[in-house]
Amino acid sequence: MTDERAAGTHGSVEAVFREERGRLLAALVHRFGDLDLAEDVASEAIEAALRHWPADGVPARPGAWLLTTARRRAVDRLRRDQAYAARLALLAAEAERAGPAAPADTDGGLPDERLRLFFTCAHPALPAADRGALTLRYLAGLTTPEVARAYLVPTATMAQRLVRAKKKIREARIPFRVPDPHELPGRLPGVLQAVYSIFTEGYAASSGPHLQRLDLAEEAIRLARILRRLLPAEREVAGLLGLMLLVHARRDARTGPGGELVLLDAQDRTRWDRDMIAEGQALVLTALTGGPPGPYGVQAAIAALHDEAADEASTDWPQVVALYDVLLVLSPSPVVALNRAAAVAMRDGPEAGLALLDDLAGEPQLRGHHPYPAARADLLRRLGRRAEAAVAYREALDLAGTEPEREHLRRRLAAVEADTA
């Protein structure tokens, strides 16, 4: 076989695995009750595909081929390891006592096996930060460095966190199932955060040559729709889905012809998806009606204000700031404070915004978070403090993860350096 055909087949395997990974792992965990075993045999199935598909061709149902191969590898491993088999038999017995999982709907509704894995990864026995990390790693298929960047922690720290979380699932014998209806409200926040983390990585990739990973964003939206059907009365589910739709509606305008970053103020708003915006706006009304708002409903309302405006100048900045004030009470964090400072700069001027940003200078969560120095640089530039802006642009450039972001910062840096020459 030629090198070109081998490379093409390898690419096909990678594409299939990227598409099928979550389904494959979920099916294996459902069958064998062990995430480590599922991950190992899934990797072995891919290795087998790389050996066989170049000669035999990619099968008509590659996902089924991978699942069958992985199951055989798991059975072979269990036959060789009696202690391992005994432990898994205990897990299976406990799952049976807990009752059968709800069957999947025939129309593609809920729950599918990935949804079961979502709730397993978001189990309350796990620390909150670990729930989202597990979901990103094993359902969205992000690498450990990508998950680490999403959580603004070192890669080594995230690797330890994932190992610890898997150990907790194993030792606590957390069942692989969708919770009963009365359990769902208490389990929901962890799942929503996991879904939103996936969307965030899709909307603004943590690294690589592209600004967006639309496959991840669309997968997060699909999962949010499943949750919306499952819990139609939960307003925060509506808020999360609305938020993602209102943001994703801008996807085509966020990059130029060469994949370059286009900021919100320069986007061609005629390219925004108006049907998606309309759906998101309706969900905002649901999220904000019937009681105190939740964090996702407030964020969705902020996104709706941006999407409703004809341009940046006509955006209702006082209302945006007011919503950020509410969000800081509901979900206080340095990142929310950073976004509020940017909105204050639009309402009250760059000096007011810069003062708020400078107050955040010592926040550990913002270290390594390139939007912080980038925001400072832009406000310094607007104030005419070019030399200071150049320093901040360099700091942001060192931290930015994707090439479009780095290229944008390089252009801004070159412009302020030219002005100071």
From TrEMBL:
The keyword NADP does not apply. Residues 187-287 form the DUF6596 domain. Residues 17-82 form the RNA polymerase sigma-70 region domain. Residues 121-169 form the RNA polymerase sigma factor 70 region 4 type domain. Keywords: Sigma factor, Transcription, Transcription regulation. SUPFAM superfamilies: Sigma2 domain of RNA polymerase sigma factors, Sigma3 and sigma4 domains of RNA polymerase sigma factors. Gene3D superfamilies: 1.10.1740.10, Winged helix-like DNA-binding domain superfamily/Winged helix DNA-binding domain. GO terms for molecular function: DNA binding; sigma factor activity. GO terms for biological process: DNA-templated transcription initiation. It comes from the Bacteria. Pfam families: DUF6596 (PF20239), Sigma70_r2 (PF04542), Sigma70_r4_2 (PF08281). Belongs to the sigma-70 factor family. ECF subfamily. This is Sigma-70 family RNA polymerase sigma factor. It comes from Micromonospora costi.
